[in-house]
Structure formats: C-alpha cells, structure tokens
Amino acid sequence: MNSKNNRVIKGIFFLAIQVFILPVTAQTVTRLHQRAIVVDTHNDCLTSLTLKGKDITSRLNTGHSDLYRWKKGGLDVQFFSVWTDKSPRNAASFFHDALEEIDSLHRIILRNPDRMTFGETYREIKNRAHKDKLVALIGVEGGHMIEEDLQKLDSLYALGMRYLTLTWNNSTSWASSAMDETLYPEKIKHKGLNEFGKQVVEHLNELGVIVDLSHTGEQTFYDAIAVSKKPVLLSHSSVWSICPVFRNVKDDQIKAVAKNGGVICINFYSGFISKEYDQLQSMLLNKKDSLLGLLTQASDSDSMETMKNWNAWYDKSMSEARPTLAQLVDHIDYIVKLVGDKYVGIGSDYDGVSSVPAGMDDVTAYPKITEELLRRGYSNKSIKRILGGNVMRVIKANFR
Fold first, then answer.
1. Are residues 69 and 148 in the same domain?
2. What is the pTM of this model?
C-alpha cells in the first residue's frame, strides 16, 4: 500500500472518530464546562441592579445576572465592574461612587458566605473555584475614579480592586479614551498617557493590579503596553476587523497583546459583534426624527402615542437584527487564528449592555460557548484556556 493510500485511510479514520465516536453531546459539553475554571472579566450588575435595589442573591426576573443563574451557567469567577458616569452620582466625588459600589459587593458577600467569596490572590482564586461558591473580584472601570491621586488608587486596591480600566468613554487629564480619540479629538488634553499616566501604570504593576486597556484610545493602548512590565487585560472588547467600531481592537493591537502575554476578553454587546447590527442601529437613530414625522402624518395619534409606537417598532427591529452565537464565537475564532488560543477570553459586559446575541440572553448561556467551540473542533485544552485559563494566567502574573 503506497503512502498516498495510507494518508487517505488515516484521514477517513480520524473523520470517523469525530463524526461517530466523539459527537458533541449535552453530556460532553456539561462535563467539559464543569471541569474548566470559567471566568467572566466584566459584569455591571452592581450599577444596573444592586444600586437600584435589586437583590442579586435572589432569582430575578430582570437583568442578566443573579447567583442562581450564575450557578446554572457554571461560572466560577466574576470580575464585578465598579463604574460611574462622566458626572458622579454622589455630590462628593467619583471616588465616593466607587466606594459605594465596592461596599455594596462586600455587604452581599458578608450576607452570603456560603454562596460567594472574595478572591484577592491567585492561590485563593484557584483554590476557591469549583467549591460551589462564586469567586468575586473587583475591576474599577475608569481612571477618573482615582481623581489623579495615587493614594486613592492605593485605597481602592486595599478594598479589593484587582484591575483598573485606565479610561471609560471619557478621557482623563492623563489618558485618552477610544471614544474621544476617535469621535471627539478636540476634547483631549493630551493624547495617550502623560507622565502621570505612566506613573499610574507603573504603580498598578507594583501593587499587583492588572492594567485593563478596554475603552482606551489606540495611543493610550500602545503607551500603556510599552510601560507595563506585566501582562495586560482587555476586559470587554471585541474584534475591529469583524465589527469596525471604536471600542473594538485592531489586528496590530491583538498582536501587541499577544506579545505582551495579555488577554482580550470578548464583549457580548450586539453592536460590537455584528457590523450589520451597528449599522442598522446608527441608521435608525440618525433618521429617528424624520421617521417619527412620517409616523405622525400617517396616523391620528398624539405625539406620546407615536413615540410609543416608534419605541415598540425600534425594539422589534433591533431584536430581529441581533447576531447569532456563531457570530460571537467568530470573534474568539479570529483571535485564535491570528495569534493563538492563549490570548482570548470572555468579558461579557452582562448588565452593562442593551442587547446580546440571540440565545445568550443571560449568564446561564456560558455553556453554549463551550458547545460551539467543541462543534468547531477546538480541543478540550484550548477551550479550558478560552473559558478562563488564559485570564487565570494573567492573574497569576500580576497578583502578589
């Protein structure tokens, strides 16, 4: 038998194994998902649910997250986002907004020690995962909350902050955001990091706090990567080449993260996953006034009724345009094909976004990612890396 025939027979043999011996069954998915340490690097429930009086320890009928649904979704480690807008909620300061959210998380954990626990070191996180408790970590989303004061950064670290997103959509005096660099360059005082911004990155490295580059402008991104001596994180960003919006990262940025040893955690927001969704949304919002005028002329309804009809039609149109699970996993696939399977993870942005892919409606849906990766032929080892192993590596490299 010649070598060509040998290759043909081997090919048929391995195809038979995949098709007949190793099917992607519910049992296969469940077993792999349970064995992995599943990490989500970004969830906004403290702002969108807890501060609004919702009890995430109860089964909620609103929002994306609660302890019951996290358990059903097989999540082991959750970074809770501490966020405040461009204007503070509390008259005192942005910093006090951060303290309020961190305090709310501490109180939840103190009241539920059998269901939640903090993880402040790599060893604690690894040992406490798979112990039937959700391991909680804190990520502060926006450098404006340190108010240009390294002592406040130290205080947030002492209270449990384990990553700092250098900017949110708003720039600071020391770091420019993706939104401002792309859409409002006239607002920027200094593009990229200034000397204080570089001090912030160096101090985060010293403390053992991960530098998070989601939301940062390209100049800030490259300045921070150049300064950081430790692997960085993009806690909730997706791929620009698939969906070219200012919040997604370009190929050269992906390659820079891989060279640094960091991880890009895919954001689930429909408008960051599907360019068609983003384009439809932009078109409808840009033409909202003219479309409302047409609706008013075509009916005898008053303005309030017209607005109600518009909102219902808009919501229906955008819901029908939601991307699929496969489109979400395409972003993971893209990064793996570009730089390998060691540099991508999950950063859902649940409870911080208005739309997610069809079928990914809340935190119970994480196993669907496992299923889709298996269906695409990913190995168990690769899937474990993507679900949380890569982020755990960055945690180990950064935390004290």
1. yes
2. 0.92
